[in-house]
Amino acid sequence: MSEHVAVSKVTAQTAEYSSALPKLLTFTLALAVGPISAYFLSEKFLWSGNSTYAAITAIVAANLVLVGYIITSMNEDNQTPVVTSQEKTESRKTR
Amino acid sequence: MSSCPPYAPFFGFGGVAAAMVLSTVGAAFGTSKSGIGIAGVGTFKPELIMKSLVPVVMSGIVAVYGLVVAVLIVGGIQPGDYSLYAGFVHLAAGLACGCTGMAAGYAIGLVGESCVRAYVYESKVFVTMVLVLIFGEVLGLYGLIVALIMNSRAAEARCI
């Protein structure tokens, strides 16, 4: 009986936090791909070969990814307390 | 003695390696140390994990600083017309970025671990953590700025 409770709790938790994994993967890809592609693309198309400005563009892109991540994590934190309180009241009812 | 000896690219590529390797050492320390704290937090309050990953993202940015400087320096090295002056400039630029990245990653790791553990008990620590982490990451940014300024002067010397 306790095994069923544990399994359902794990699956409920993974369902609840499965929205976190796509976000994390998105930000990982953004941080891996964004700055270096910003460097090469801006060097070629924006700054006509000036590599210092291209490096500055890449750094701005990296810091934008960071700011986006901080804002996303703060917004997610404002959403999750609704779900966790519902889940806790449901689990109390099933017992 | 020529001002463009054939061993000049040794120093240039040494700068490339220093920028990438040393900043990655700092980022690895920052990621692992704060990851240890996040593993401790995650066992008690898994809903705080997304916010607790901010130090890890900042460590990644320190590594990106090193990557950008490495790519920047590599773009300026050529086999033929490369002066020893440019080699020294590139070496110094790579070392500046790499060692400051190491310092920044070290700071981010220590701050990230303890602030993430404190965040379990007091939610106002989050803003403090982000502020302190930004100050730590800015150390790497200073090294990057100096590396950029130095690299822009590398093409000054001519071969005689």
Mean pLDDT metric of chain B: 94
Secondary structure category of chain A: mainly alpha
- Gap between N and C termini of chain B: 9 Å
User: What oligomeric state do these chains adopt?
Assistant: heterodimer
Instruction: Write down the overall mean pLDDT of chain A.
Output: 79
List keywords for this structure.
heterodimer, A: 95 residues, mainly alpha, 92% helix, elongated, B: 160 residues, 5 helices, transmembrane helix (chain A), endoplasmic reticulum (chain A), membrane (chain A), cytoplasmic vesicle (chain A), transmembrane (chain A)
Describe the protein's architecture and organization.
By secondary structure, chain A is mainly α. Chain A has helices spanning 2-17, 20-46, 51-94. Chain A is elongated, with a radius of gyration of 21 Å. In chain B, 54% of the residues are buried.
Quick structural overview:
Chain B: Keywords: Hydrogen ion transport, Ion transport, Membrane, Transmembrane, Transmembrane helix, Transport, Vacuole. The complex is a heterodimer of chains A (95) and B (160). Chain A has 95 residues and is mainly α.
